[in-house]
Structures are given as structure tokens and as C-alpha cells.
Amino acid sequence: MTTIVRVIKVVDTRKWTSGPGGTFPIPGTGTMNECRRCGARHEIHAHVELSDGTVAIMGDTCAAREASHLGAVVKDARSLTLSIARARAKLAAIERLADEWRRYEEMIRGEHGLRSYDRIPPGLYYELRDRTAEHFGAKGMARWYMPPSRGELAKAQKAVARLLEQAGGHRA
Ligand SMILES: [Zn+2]
Q1: Residue 63 CA to ligand 1 centre (angstroms)
Q2: Cα of 37 from ligand 1 centre, angstroms
Q3: What does the CA dihedral 160, 161, 164, 168 come to, rounded to 10 degrees?
């Protein structure tokens, strides 16, 4: 078999979820690719260049086994890919949460005749909090009782940006 000369990229095709219980990939949500090496179907794809110039896609563990001298490269690419997916899932969850809070705050303000610059009285704040959490629960999402802070959002955005920079921006 032609040997692996270069690791082009490692792509995690799975969807990720993030909530109070943690951030993790959802098995079965990715694109199953039949591995060039073992024939099994993997959701994490290692794109590698072979000595004949062609590109093959295989499981990341398989790629590392096939080319042991590139094992560390595959491992690093995999861990960076997973870190990016995790950071993106966290950011998406925070953004979604902030959106829902804004929507509910708007609705409750409307119901009580408050304008967007009026302060929300504490009683209404609790109503908003409970209804928002209930809304998340009804959607099958984890219940959140606090809106995300601006600092949390900025931190999540920074984490994604830092990892993408580390990846050299040459990945999707
Ligand atoms: Zn494989």
C-alpha cells in the first residue's frame, strides 16, 4: 500500500451539544466515511496525502497507526479539531441562550407596557427567569436560570478565535 506522506487535516463531522451538563459530540450525527485502511465507518476524518500524490480519508486512529512517524501530527490535529468544535458549541449555546432571554424579556416588557429602556422590576425579573427556563425545558434543552453575561460571551468568542488562529485559518 502507498504510504502516508502528509496529514492534510482532521475533520470532526459530528454535531456537538452544550449545556449545563457539559459540552460533547452527539454520536451518529456526523458523516460516516468508509475508512481507506480498516473499512469501518468513521465520523472523524483524517485527510492524508499518499506517496502517489492522491488524497485518502481514513479514521484518525487508523491514520496514526498507518504512519507512526506522523502519529503526533494526527493527534495534535485531532485535538485541535475537537477543541474548536467544543469551543464553537459553547459559543453557539451562549448565543442561543442570550437570544432567548432577549426575546422573552421583550415579550414580558410588552405585556407590562414597559419600554426597552425601563428597568425590569425584581418581580418581573423572576417571572422572566422562570418562563425562560420553562421555555428551554419545553424545547428539550437544559434549563437555564440566568442570562449569559457579556463577559461569558466575550470569553467564548475569544476561545474560538484563538483556536482558529492556532489552526492557521486553513480549515473550515
Ligand atoms: Zn479505520
Answers
A1: 8
A2: 5
A3: -170
Q: Where are the domains of the chain?
A: 4-166
Sign of CA dihedral 58, 62, 66, 67: positive
Q: What spacing in Å lies between the alpha carbon of 90 and ligand 1's midpoint?
A: 29
Other CB atoms closer than 10 Å to residue 47's CB: what's the count? 17
* Grid coordinates given for 29: 450525527
The pLDDT tens digits for 109-142 are 898 898 888 888 888 888 888 888 887 777 776 6
Task: Give the model confidence (pLDDT) of 48-85 as tens digits.
Answer: 999 999 999 999 999 999 888 899 999 999 999 999 99
- What is the CA(18)–ligand 1 centre distance, in A? 28
How far is the centre of ligand 1, averaged over its atoms, from the C-alpha of 163 (Å)? 27
